[in-house]
Amino acid sequence: MSQPEPKHRLLLALESSCDETAAAVIDRQRNVLSNVVATQHELHERFGGVVPEIASRAHVERILPVIDEALRTANATLDDIGAIAVATNPGLVGSLLVGLTAAKTLALVLDVPLLAVNHIEAHLYACQIAAQRNLFPAVGLVVSGGHTNLYDCHSPVDFELLGSTTDDAAGEAFDKVAQVLGLEYPGGPRIEQVARNGNPTAIAFPRTFLNDPRLDFSFSGLKTAVLYAARGTPGARAQPLPLTEQRMADLAASFQAAVIDVLIGKCDQAIQQTGRSTLLVGGGVAANTLFRQKLQELSDRRKVELYIAPREYCTDNAAMGAIGWELFDRGLFAPLDVDVTPGLVRKKKAAN
Ligand code: KG4
Ligand code: ZN
Fold first, then answer.
1. Closest ligand to the CA of 144
2. Model confidence pLDDT, tens digit, residues 84-95
3. Nearest residue to 284 via CA among 264, 313, 320
4. What CATH code would you report for 138-313?
5. Is residue 45 pLDDT above 80, yes or no?
6. pLDDT tens, residue by residue, 93-123
7. pLDDT tens, 125-147?
8. Which of 165, 181, 170 has the alpha carbon at shortest distance from 227?
9. What are the residue ranges spanned by the domains of the chain?
10. Distance 97 CA to ligand 1 centre (A)
């Protein structure tokens, strides 16, 4: 079957699923010509997390200037755009709607195909943009503020969910533990920094499900364990150790070690269960230096090829919307009445 050809040569990708308004221009060879991200951290910081209504309003204000800047930086105009990709799932409903409405309008006016991108799968495609070659099939782990998902990625458009978190996402655990320790949002980078001076074996925090063959995760017990270690167990006679700088560092390092042990353990199990020889890792937590080192050790031990998203593509961005070209190549266009799906569309492996 002949492949559909783009009328023009460039893809415009939009991302507005949470608290980043982003646009990128990507050519047919997956070169990222521009990648503009307007973060809203400053708007949500004082609330300790993302406030959906504030996020939607900020997306409305920012989406057009961000698209404009992405086109300008890529030295392109709307006439060069041959397709529009947009994250439609999963995310905050009001936030997703802003990106989708902009994308639909542009697709209609320019008369070009609309491509509906799964934000989580796009996080893994960030590995392929950097590698500039096909990395599929592979095991894929997405560790972000909202998701901790393990996939068997059969192809760039066929992801089978192997397991996910049953409560908090790994990034969310970093953010909540940071709050307990009085560190600012987003907590991941701050915990990482404080942990550098701490002893990762100082406190034996739980590694939930580590020895369970299921590929699911749970981080809420760990979060509570850190809370009790920092502030004392309710009803217990013993007072917690004073929260000195060293104690803070030990708590941060021991917490970080527990999260990373579980993530590495589950990747290892997924590699063995699927027999895949490539591992892809993306999402905000993949920016963590110790995690990146431990992934490298796992890849050396298991002799699998490892691709971690480059740091600039770990946190939310639109460049990873380059996965839209994969949909385009297969003629997987979205109708103009496509809707957003806030919850993750789950394609879990059937139990056998
Ligand atoms: O992928 P992302 O930008 O947003 C979602 O799609 O959720 O991920 C943000 C998450 C936050 O929870 C943040 O604390 C975490 O990634 N994060 C990190 C690091 N940098 C960001 N966690 C651990 N270590 C880091 N260096
Ligand atoms: Zn994300």
1. 1
2. 999 999 999 999
3. 313
4. 3.30.420.40
5. no
6. 999 999 999 999 999 999 999 999 999 999 9
7. 999 999 999 999 999 999 999 89
8. 181
9. 10-131+315-329, 138-313
10. 23
The DSSP code sequence of 205-259 is: ---TTTT-SS--B--HHHHHHHHHHHH--TT-SSPPPP--HHHHHHHHHHHHHHH
CATH architecture of 10-131+315-329: 2-Layer Sandwich (3.30)
Q: Is 282 in the pocket of ligand 1 (CB under 6 A)?
A: no
Ligand 1 pocket member 316 (CB < 6 A): yes
Task: Indicate whether residue 137 lines ligand 1 (CB < 6 A).
Answer: no
Within this chain, domains 10-131+315-329 and 138-313 share the same CATH topology:
yes
Long-range contacts, 297-302 (Cβ 8 Å, 24+): 298/264, 298/267, 298/268, 302/268, 302/271, 302/272
Residue 289 CA, closest ligand 1 atom number: 26
Q: Is 284 in the pocket of ligand 1 (CB under 6 A)?
A: yes
List, for residues 164-198, the tens digit of each pLDDT value: 999 999 999 999 999 999 998 889 999 999 999 99
Higher pLDDT, 6 or 269: 269
